[in-house]
Amino acid sequence: MKTFACGDVVPGCTTTFTGPDDDAVLAQVAAHASADHGLGSVPPELVAQVRASIVSV
Fold this sequence. Notes:
This protein has helices at about 20-35, 45-55, and strands at about 1-5, 15-20, 55. By secondary structure, it is an alpha+beta fold.
């Protein structure tokens, strides 16, 4: 299992994500970024930050 805390990249955000692999977590993060942070698309730099912050649980 993998997990990611949005607050590791976006200070103050308390949303966390869990999935079987990085891609599953990234899909959840992309939907969250759009719905809750107003991003129409996720820039590659942000994807790289998220990937670097995903950890195994």
